[in-house]
Design goal:
single chain; 566 residues; mainly alpha; three-stranded antiparallel β-sheet; 8% strand; binds S-adenosylmethionine; H3K4_H4K5_MeTrfase; SET_dom_sf; SET_dom
Length: 566
């Protein structure tokens, strides 16, 4: 690592060394933080751009989605939600970028660029203009780690970087296409300074940029801030990052003490160890967290979590289930789970062909049988397979009532195990999904259409006997409670939940139920409120969840002997 000026540490943190792994740096808390609390907010990123395909559906400056957008009249490639964003983008980067997109259109007849190529081009523009923050981070001896030697040794990744560097330089007009081709033919690219600098910038982007998942639309893009880039990885992280437009918030996922290193996860930390190691290859280190060194599965990692108790206020308030899961590890080894995951992962589910998608999902379900036998509902790839079927019911086939038991199953058997803190965004979204599904099934029930549409007697029986509106209201109260602890007020699912709650509260004849649920939400220990929640919400949710495996097996199994042994 080059000795370089350190980025400024946000308030309540300092940049420290990273004992145990060389001379790297880390972010250390200088005070304690409560679970969900904001550790630091990062505005003014060096890079904040939508994905290539998202360039036409996302404001290219503030990254807002689902708003009216107007295209830049110059390049017609970028779009903006208003004149203010367009002006800000023009001033910061687009004045030069606009010419680049005109070249892209002339040379390739395209109006977008792959994300890494555009991100690199933006950094090169800023460096060329002598922008101080970009120079401090990406310039010679700049502050960001790039793992350049490691990347060079990976011929496939390095080959991709070379192509991306060539594209950015050519489209920026910094290198003629013929010059690049000629140098590539002679094998002389390594001695071209411009080219090398571009490849090194790509290494830094790859090492430090976040895949900015857009909260509601699942669109991603790139976000890079030199301060946020100081945070190291752990597969048992104590913090997480949320994005809202051009802002990132680093929040505590667990109680953090003064002097603790703050660590987030760069990858999905709930997949098996070999898959995690594969995903971390791009970062050039081997993770030394307990999940990795002891090869803990999701249940074992959950048992060690300091925030299990928070689940007392959740869809799955039975804490004993998290403390003492009834899995049977004797029937499948960690190595066998790795094999199942690898085989499962090699079978890609096509997005646009529903019939083929179901065929692949059936194959994948077969692979999951040993996990079903071991009652390892939360061990991948079992939950992801159920999730695929749930999405197919909910989106592709519009069979919400069949998706509902699967959503309840995932929310009670899987989500609290993989993300123990109930304020994690994916958990809140899962609860919100149940609320939305219940509002639809309640409507069908009220119109007497449920039994006509769904021949599954058990399901219809549970739903018609349940107070679906109270169940829905309870879900919304959970969403509002946890989103206010772990997310911003602007967060899409929170705003949606507040609106739905207002609608439900305005319905006539629900005063008693609403008052009991309000009591329970204010104090989950309140005897009357809790008894109501248990009987009217938890029990039917569990009854629905208990149907899930039968539904999945019926749809995907085709095996006469039922796998369900619950
Ligand atoms: C985003 S940077 C984090 C800050 C970095 N330590 C630095 O000094 O710039 C990512 C890089 O930090 C290092 N790193 C992050 N987490 C690590 C860990 N748990 N063990 C070893 N190295 C880690 C790796 O080199 C990784 O590519």
């Amino acid at each position: 690592m080059a000795a370089a000026a350190l980025p400024t540490a946000p308030e309540s943190t300092r940049i420290g060394g990273a004992p145990g792994f060389g001379d790297g740096r880390s972010l250390i808390a200088t005070r304690s933080f409560k679970p969900g609390e904001v550790i630091a907010t990062f505005n003014d990123p060096l890079l904040a751009l939508p994905d290539g395909p998202g360039m036409r559906t996302t404001c290219n400056f503030c990254l807002a989605v689902e708003v009216p957008l107007k295209a830049c009249t110059g390049c017609k490639a970028t779009v903006y939600c208003g004149a203010q964003c367009q002006r800000a983008h023009w001033k910061s980067i687009h004045k030069t970028e606009c010419k680049m997109f005109k070249r892209v259109r002339e040379q390739s007849n395209k109006d977008w660029l792959p994300t890494p190529v555009r991100a690199l081009a933006q950094v090169l523009i800023l460096l060329e203009a002598g922008e101080p923050n970009a120079t401090a981070a990406f310039g010679d001896g700049g502050s960001l780690e790039g793992n350049v030697d490691g990347f060079r040794q990976d011929s496939q990744v390095w080959g991709d970087f070379q192509l991306q560097a060539a594209a950015a330089l050519v489209y920026l007009g910094m290198m003629a296409s013929e010059e690049w081709q000629e140098k590539a033919r002679r094998g002389a690219l390594d001695s071209d300074e411009k080219f090398q600098r571009a490849c090194e910038v790509l290494c830094k982007i790859q090492t430090n940029a976040f895949n900015r998942l857009d909260q509601d639309t699942a669109l991603s893009g790139i976000f890079l801030h030199p301060g946020l880039a100081m945070v190291n990885h752990s597969c048992m992280p104590n913090a997480f990052v949320g994005f809202d437009k051009r802002t990132a918030q680093l929040r505590a996922g667990e109680p953090i003490d003064e002097g603790d290193e703050i660590r987030i996860s760069y990858i999905d930390y709930t997949i098996p160890r070999n898959a995690r190691r594969e995903a971390l290859k791009l970062y050039h280190f081997e993770c030394g967290c307990p999940r990795c060194t002891l090869d803990l599965d999701v249940y074992q990692a959950c048992q060690r979590s300091p925030v299990i108790d928070l689940n007392a206020f959740s869809v799955q308030p039975d804490l004993q289930k998290l403390r003492d899961p009834r899995v049977d590890r004797s029937s499948i080894s960690a190595a066998e789970i790795e094999t199942v995951y690898k085989q499962w992962n090699s079978q890609k589910v096509p997005a646009s062909d529903e019939v083929e998608a179901m065929r692949v999902t059936r194959e994948q379900w077969k692979l999951c049988k040993p996990l079903v036998e071991a009652r390892m509902w939360a061990v991948e790839p079992l939950p992801s397979t159920i999730l695929q079927l749930m999405q197919s019911y909910a989106v592709g086939r519009n069979q919400i009532a069949y998706a509902l038991p699967l959503a309840c199953f995932l929310q009670t058997e899987y989500e609290p195990v993989r993300y123990v803190a109930p304020f994690m965004p994916w958990r809140i979204k899962g609860v919100m999904l149940i609320a939305t599904m219940l509002s639809e099934t309640a409507y069908l029930t009220a119109r007497g259409e449920l039994a006509k549409t769904y021949p599954h007697k058990g399901l219809v029986n549970i739903l018609t006997k349940s107070d679906q509106l109270s169940m829905c209201e309870a879900m919304l109260r959970l969403v509002v409670h946890w989103a206010r602890i772990g997310q911003t007020e602007q967060w899409g699912p929170l705003r949606e939940a507040v609106e739905m709650l207002r609608d439900i509260e305005s319905l006539e004849g629900r005063a008693r139920e609403s008052s009991l649920l309000r009591k329970w939400a204010k104090n989950p220990e309140d005897f009357e409120g809790r008894a109501f929640f248990q009987a009217v919400v938890v029990e039917p949710i569990n009854a629905l969840a208990a149907l899930a495996l039968e539904i999945v097996e019926g749809e995907l199994g085709g095996d006469e002997r039922s796998l369900v042994r619950r």
